[in-house]
Amino acid sequence: MSQQVTTIERLGHRIAERREALGLTGEELAERAKVEAGYVAYLEGRAGLPLREALARLAGALETTVEELLAEPPAGGGPAAAQPELVTLDEKESLRLLEPGGVGRIAFQGRYGLTVLPVNFRMLGGAIVFRTTTGGSTDEDLRTGVADVEYIVAFEVDRIEELRRGGWSVLVQGSLHHVTDEEERAAAVATGVEPWAGGDRGQYLKITPTRVTGRRIDPGT
After folding, report:
1. Helices 26-33 and 3-21: crossing angle, nearest 10°?
2. I need a surface site. Which of 92, 128, 131, 141 has the fewest CB within 10 A?
3. Are 170 and 98 a contacting pair, CB within 8 Å?
């Protein structure tokens, strides 16, 4: 189902966790926020039907699909904020933004020219770890064929904050290393990086940054 549904469910979970940490009931939170108690219950997923099931029923009644109901224009298609400011991020802040992992884009010179691919990644001691198919086209393209000579790549990660008309991007440049040492592989496995594409992707790859830059769009007020 749509990423939007997952985001709403995650938001509801975080609201409930924070409310409980503060020792508040749903009604007390609603009173503090000056919203209806039923709305708080809805956000937390306590208002009858789970969100996914409710959407499925509504879509059926409207003779459409959940995907159609949740269809959004491409990210970044709206107008800019009233007073946006482009802020340069230092290396420490840029790496902090990468720490949770997620999805990034690796850029390299492949057999058919410049190639950019999305991959799931995790961080390991300041390095980027991801997986690919052993002997596959990406694995082969990222081998130099020369002993102890590593491939130079770029890796980009961004987050778009559609409602605020802001967001950030981080660009990492560095050398890519095929993980073969048993101890190093065990550490890479321990990151828990899991490719959404599935399949047998047993080759772990590690990018050691030599240059890290970042930018943030601050939408202002």
Report:
1. 100
2. 92
3. yes
